[in-house]
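Fresh eyes needed here. Have a critical look at this protein's tokenised backbone.
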Amino acid sequence: MRVLNRLLLTGLLAISPLYAIAAEDAPGADPDVTIRQDGDKTITEYRQNGFLYAIKVTPKIGKPYFLVRADGSEGNFIRSDQPDMLIPAWEIFKW
């Protein structure tokens, strides 16, 4: 029994630095929120660890709506209330 307790204590002491490193790299619970004005609309961007995952658009007239990632790819958003409607993200010119 005494040998088992020592092995258990040694294992816990060996694993504890790994737990501290994992806790530092864990994603934050709160998203980063950026609010900006674009003409007559208020745009709220939600980011988690720098990854943009949702946009809330609040027009001056009308009800607000959310744009969310369609398939996880960059720049391909859909409206959460109308999932069949794709938002165009064409690149006309690139310098």
In short: The chain has a mean pLDDT of 75.
